[in-house]
Amino acid sequence: MSERSERTTNRRGPVLLGVRHHGPGSARAVRAALEQCTPDAVLIEGPPEADALVPLAAQEGMRPPVALLAHVQDDPGRAAFWPLAEFSPEWVAMRWALERGVPVRFIDLPAAHSLAMREEGERADEGTADGHPAAGAEAGGEKRGAGKGDADGAHTVSPVPAADGPGEQEAGAEADVRVDPVRVLAEAAGYDDPERWWEDVVEHRAGRAGAGSGGEPGTDALAPFAALAEAMGALRETYGDGGHDRDPVREAHMRLRLRAARREFGDGIAVVCGAWHVPALAHRTTVAADRQLLKGLPKAKVAMTWVPWTHRRLSRHSGYGAGIASPGWYGHLFSAPDRPVARWLTKVAGLLREEDYAVSSAHVIEAVRLAEGLATVRGRPLAGLTELDDAVRAVMGDGSDAPSSLIHDRLVVGDVLGEVPDDAPAVPLQRDIARSQRSLRLKPEALERELELDLRKETDAGRSRLLHRLRLLGVPWGEPTRSRGGTGTFRETWRLRWEPELSVRVAEAGIWGTTVLSAATAKAASEASGAATLAEVTALAERCLLAELPDALPVVMRALSDRAALDADVGHLAQALPALVRSVRYGDVRGTDAAALREVAVGLAERVFVGLPPACAGLDADGAAEMRGHLDATHQAVGLLGQPETGQAGGNPTGRQTGPHTGRQADQPTGRRTGPRHLRARWAGVLRAVGERDAVPGLIRGRAARLLLDEGELGDGGAERLMGLALSPGTPPTDAAGWIEGFVGGGAGGDGGMLLVHDERLLALVDGWLTGVPDAAFTDVLPLLRRTFAEYEAGVRRTLGELIRRGPSSPSHRQAGAAPDAAAPGFGPGLDRDRAAAVLPTLRMLLGIGAHGFDDEPNDEPNDGLSSGLSGGPHDDQRDATRPADDLTGART
């Protein structure tokens, strides 16, 4: 053993325990070494500002994974994390010391310096692209397999020099290369994968020992650290600092802290740090030299606390992640070192059974045998994830890869979310959020889940307010999604997942107030004053109503009125109207007085009505496509605004009084000629003006005609008349194709072609026009039509093709002298009774009605309602007097 390695493990001096962060083998070895050495103090690589937080790690409320969070007090967005898992050597050392009353000190470069240096532009290579440091950058960083091996925060992406001749290269050339020592050692051992080499040499071999040891019983627990220190010493002699420019500064601070600890506690000290730093800490330097390296470093005022972390974040290779590909597997190796393969496959079998896979104990036994056999053949001391995955695929998955993604997501990575004690330091806003979470029984979880809310219930309404307020503050704990349980406005569906970096967002939002309500109110008022467009203000008004911020709403309303009065652009007005109308609607549902918002919305709609027809004239293709979107949005907004107001049937599911307009009749205007019916009538007139104006592009005219048809405003033959005019020979083919796209397009707001499927008269008009397009113009029309019909589903296109090939449908078979069926508006010529009768058996079965034949309905029994519309029995005359002939359901009263 070399003199240097003897100094690293000298019992008469500090014991230097070089580790690889987040390694279960290193964690067990550290515990065994501490049991053997019983030091008087433990020094850990980490920010010294965290010394005061160490006692919290001993509380019952602290459950890893957790992380130390440091942020600049004046700018909380400048932050860094130091994650710790249950299998992290630093966490094991900290808990060992706390259980025995041994002092713990952190010795790395203070976060006050590292965050300030980053702000000044001396950003470390560990930092991410967005300017945030990588997890643990500056202190016990976590990047694995692509850094210095000891994971001190370096992210190596450059090629590594060949292991067979590194000494031939100049040190200056090596300064530009970021060395991954684990990769160098793995290549020297003949491995092409450094992670596999590390697992075979450290993790899996340690996993075969007892639960409380780092090796076989009776062996020296310090021997592995001596061997690793010697290897790292040789690498440091060859590569220097390995291209990590900040390491000399960090190591100088570590040596100063080590000297101070020796003066305080003597030589009985254990130091847990990255193995890469061990040779530098063992190297003898002067105090003056180390202080010179630290002289003039910038400094910032920082705050530090514990925050929960997740296994999923530990697996990230960038951002705040630690770069551990399999934190769940590492946690399993640490917690179950005896028979880890059998225990792991038992977990896998339990998971697959929960997902309805047929897995028995026999599958587990055979999978264990196969995994251990593969490990033996491949020369591995213990079956790793590669062997386990092969065994699961062959034995439990029947050769399928389907279970692999499930196992990787739920077990290999996992969704474990740590916990921190309530008395951990936190900004007041964070404490208010925690109180709200407890009172609303809304626990943060790492696993993504959906939450259905019924706003008629007080607890669910409170949850909705909290989630909307947090979103307004920039803390997206939940994202709203489309509800699958219903379409009522009293329902909300959220997708929730708590991410660790949300703690930074909360700290940033703390500048707005000490409670969620006050902070959201202050930020909404600030955004209203700084909003640049009318659409931004209307969207903000909607968010204020959803979050129920009564103190912010007047400020937003003043800004909304000012911008609406000054903005004359119809596109801006039409873009702002939908959010404003939704605000009126949600205000009614949530029991909020939205009368002022309704007045602004009605005034905005009137201005859109006046300005829309001239704004649609003379547009090019791009402008027409944009205006079509405004047309659809305005139509939807008018439909909501034209609904009965609060107090009418279905207007207020909560049943609460909501303001001075409560109880108003649906037809009673909210102002002078602005009632719901009047708004709808005015809008129908605007659509007619747009649809019949020749200067308007065909795309917009076609869309206006379709909206009128859907609202029943065209009357009998109205759609055919407009289509006939639009597709007449005098219309340019490209303009006619645009009209078709607007009328039957399958994009946003379209019906996917179902109108043409059910109305053969319109389909015949399109077919006749297309066959008459001149050859010279057909090439210009074809891309437009292809774009229109390509948006239809394959089944709709196939049905349309069959209808065109069949040609006009023949009249249904009727009795002689029978009058033809009346045609329903917008549909084909009458009812095809033969086709309708074909679905009756299936319909009876679905409705649970007696299974009678079509023509053998007993005359002495009451008709079931399905056959009575088609049977032609003796009661037909009476039936025809009470309901239309095309009614097959018998449900009319």
What characteristics describe this protein?
single chain; 893 residues; alpha/beta; four-stranded parallel sheet; three-stranded antiparallel sheet; 37 helices; 10 strands; elongated
Textual characterization of the structure:
The chain has 893 residues and is an alpha/beta fold. It is 49% helix and 6% strand. Strands 1-6-2-5 form a 4-stranded parallel sheet, sandwiched between helices. It has a 3-stranded antiparallel sheet with strand order 4-3-7, sandwiched between helices. Strands 8-10-9 form a 3-stranded antiparallel sheet, with helices on one face.
Strand content: 5-15%
Helix % is 40-55%
- Structural class of the helix and strand makeup? alpha/beta
Strands across the major sheet, in which order? 1-6-2-5
Gyration radius, in Å:
37 Å
Shape by Cα distribution: elongated
Q: Kindly state the mean pLDDT as a whole number? A: 75
CA(first)-CA(last) distance: 100 Å
- The tally of strands reads 10
Indicate the low-confidence ranges by residue numbers.
1-10, 122-176, 207-215, 317-321, 646-672, 810-817, 820-827, 852-893
Describe the biggest sheet?
4 strands, parallel
- How many DSSP H or I helices? 37
